[in-house]
C-alpha cells in the first residue's frame, strides 16, 4: 500500500543548520561575510544553545467555568532570550563577558568584578551558523549581559572550560523591542 | 551527481588518481589514492577511509597531500551537492596515520573521514 504521509518536504536538506556556528561581537546579516578573528567572541565546545521562550498568563485561570487556555484571555508577559555555551577561551575579554559587571585594566592584565552594573556592560551579540545550501542563519541577542557568572572548570589532562549564559534585555527606552531577532537566508 | 560519484569526486580532487579499494588497477602506479566507498542517508554517519600511496625515500609528498586533504575539509566540514541533497564530510579521528609496508619505499598514509549524506534515502 502506498505511503502518503511518510514524507519530508523537498527543501528539508537546504534548510538544515550544520555545525555549532559561532558567537560574534558584530555581524551584518545583509552582507553575511566570514567573520574576522577579532569579531569571534570565543571558541566553544559542545555547541551553542539559543533560546527565546515566552511567558504567558492565563487571565481565565481563576474564572469559574472558563476553559484553560482560552485564547482571548491569554496574555503574553514577556520573553526570556538567552544564549549559552561552554567556552574554551580564557582571554581577558571573555572573562569580563562571563562576569558581566567587570572592568579590564589593560596595563596589569587584571579583570575586576564590579559591585554595580553599568549600562555599558550590556552589548548586542550574535550567533551565526551555516545552512546546508550555503546560506546562513543568524540570531541577534540585544542588550546582552552574562547572567550565569564566571565558572571555570579545569580537568586533569584536559582543557579549561568556562560556562557562559548570556541573557538579552529589554531597554526602558524601547520597551516593545524583544531582545532577540532572527535572520535566515538562502544561498546567494 | 549520484552518491558514489560524489565520493569518487572528493578523493579525485587532489591531483592524483583515486580508485575505489576494490577496483585499483593491477598496473596502477603510485602515487594514487585508494578509498572505501559507502553510501547512506540522513542520520547515517559513515566512517570512510582512504590510503595515500607514494613511492620514494621521503614521506614529504604523502604528508603534503594529507595536509591538502585536511585543508579541503577545513576546520569544520566540506559540503557538496548530490542528487536529492548534500554530502557532508568531516575529518575522522585520527585523521591521518603513517603505515608501514614490507617495501620501505612505499609511503602510505591512512586517512579517516566521516561522511553523512543529507538525503532522504
Describe this entry's structure for a reader.
The complex is a heterodimer of chains A (188) and B (121). The mean pLDDT of chain A is 95. Chain A is mostly beta strands and 188 residues long. In chain A, strand 8 (152-153) and strand 9 form a beta hairpin. Chain A has one domain (17-28, 35-59, 71-185): Pnp Oxidase, Chain A (Roll), CATH 2.30.110. Chain A contains one helix and ten strands, in the order βββαβββββββ. With 121 residues, chain B is α+β, with helices and mostly antiparallel strands. Chain B has a single domain, classed as Myoviridae tail sheath stabiliser (STM4215-like), CATH 3.30.2000. Chain B is built from two helices and six strands, in the order H-E-E-E-H-E-E-E. Chain B has helices at residues 3-11, 60-73, and strands at residues 18-20, 32-35, 46-55, 78-82, 85-99, 106-118. In chain B, strand 4 (78-82) and strand 5 (85-99) form a beta hairpin. Chain B is globular, with a radius of gyration of 14 Å. The mean pLDDT of chain B is 95. Chain A binds chain B through residues 8, 12-13, 16, 18-19, 130, 132-134, and chain B through 42, 76-77, 79, 84-86, 88, 118-120.
Roughly what percent helix of chain B? 10-25%
| Global morphology of chain A | globular
**Which fold name is given in CATH as the topology of chain A?**
Pnp Oxidase, Chain A
Q: What's the number of extended β-strand segments of chain A?
A: 10
The number of domains of chain A is: 1
Based on the model shown, name its key terms.
heterodimer, A: 188 residues, mainly beta, Pnp Oxidase, Chain A, B: 121 residues, alpha+beta, STM4215-like, six-stranded mixed sheet
Amino acid at each position: 500500500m502506498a505511503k502518503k504521509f511518510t514524507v519530508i518536504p523537498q527543501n528539508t536538506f537546504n534548510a538544515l543548520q550544520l555545525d555549532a556556528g559561532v558567537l560574534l561581537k558584530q555581524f551584518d546579516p545583509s552582507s553575511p561575510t566570514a567573520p574576522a578573528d577579532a569579531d569571534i567572541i570565543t571558541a566553544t565546545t559542545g555547541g551553542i544553545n539559543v533560546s527565546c521562550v515566552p511567558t504567558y498568563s492565563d487571565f481565565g485561570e481563576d474564572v469559574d467555568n472558563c476553559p484553560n487556555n482560552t485564547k482571548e484571555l491569554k496574555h503574553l508577559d514577556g520573553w526570556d532570550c538567552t544564549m549559552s555555551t561552554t567556552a574554551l577561551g580564557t582571554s581577558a575579554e571573555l572573562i569580563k563577558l562571563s562576569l558581566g559587571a567587570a572592568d579590564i585594566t589593560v596595563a596589569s592584565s587584571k579583570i575586576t568584578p564590579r559591585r554595580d552594573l553599568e549600562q555599558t556592560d550590556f552589548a548586542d551579540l550574535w550567533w551565526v551558523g551555516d545552512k546546508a545550501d550555503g546560506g546562513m542563519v543568524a540570531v541577534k541577542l540585544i542588550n546582552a549581559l552574562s547572567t550565569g557568572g564566571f565558572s571555570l572548570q579545569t580537568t586533569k589532562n584536559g582543557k579549561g572550560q568556562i560556562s557562559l549564559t548570556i541573557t538579552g534585555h529589554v531597554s526602558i527606552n524601547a520597551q516593545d523591542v524583544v531582545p532577540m531577532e532572527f535572520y535566515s537566508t538562502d544561498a546567494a | 551527481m549520484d552518491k558514489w560519484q560524489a565520493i569518487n569526486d572528493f578523493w579525485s580532487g587532489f591531483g592524483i588518481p583515486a580508485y575505489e579499494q576494490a577496483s585499483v588497477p593491477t598496473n596502477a602506479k603510485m602515487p594514487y589514492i585508494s578509498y572505501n566507498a559507502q553510501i547512506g542517508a540522513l542520520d547515517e554517519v559513515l566512517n570512510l577511509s582512504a590510503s595515500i600511496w607514494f613511492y620514494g625515500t621521503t614521506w614529504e609528498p604523502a604528508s603534503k597531500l594529507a595536509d591538502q586533504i585536511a585543508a579541503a575539509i577545513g576546520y569544520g566540514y566540506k559540503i557538496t551537492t548530490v542528487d536529492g541533497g548534500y554530502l557532508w564530510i568531516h575529518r575522522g579521528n585520527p585523521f591521518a596515520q603513517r603505515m608501514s609496508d614490507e617495501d620501505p619505499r612505499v609511503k602510505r598514509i591512512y586517512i579517516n573521514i566521516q561522511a553523512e549524506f543529507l538525503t532522504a534515502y
